[in-house]
Amino acid sequence: MSDWNTKIIEEFRANGGQVGGPFAGGTLLLIHHHGARTGTERVNPVAYLPDGDRMVIVASAGGADKNPDWYHNLKANPDTTAEVGTEHVDVHAEEVLGDDYAATWERLVARMPGFADYKTKTARRIPLIALTRR
Question: Residue 4 pLDDT more than 80?
Fold first, then answer.
């Protein structure tokens, strides 16, 4: 895990889910995921969109040309855990597709406009992953 992620995770846990810096005032969760090949558990901080009964996370990788590793891991192992505030929530991860993708993307960029910038940096379609409680 990168030092940057480690610092955010520590700050998140120390402050009941609140962090400063680029995430200040935003919605952030910690997604647990198991390696698709290794089975090793990992944790990543990700911004999310509260969307009805689901939390939508964005596999933006900062606009990189490939999806983040956690995206592949959630596709292979969709039943996992998310830390939201001080709560550990059992969730099921499912990619948002079709018409739901377009509508959800619009809601996402209306709330977090920075994601629109990421979309201009890559030719790939940035995946959205809906987390629903299990």
Answer: yes
CATH classification number, 3-133, choose in 2.30.110.10, 3.30.365.10, 3.20.20.30, 3.40.50.1370: 2.30.110.10
pLDDT digit string (tens) for 53-111? 999 999 999 889 999 999 999 999 999 999 999 999 999 999 999 999 999 999 999 99
3-state secondary structure 35-92: CCCCCCEEEEEEEEEEECCEEEEECCHHHCCCCCHHHHHHHHCCEEEEEECCEEEEEE
Q: Where are the domains of the chain?
A: 3-133
| Phi-psi group of 17: left, alpha or beta (phi > 0 → left; psi -120 to 50 → alpha; rest → beta) | left
For 6-29, b where at least 16 C-beta lie within 10 A, e where not — what string?
Answer: eebbebbeeeebebeeebeeebbb
What pLDDT digit, counting tens, does each position of 37-46 carry?
999 999 999 9
Q: How many CB atoms lie within 10 A of CB 81?
A: 17
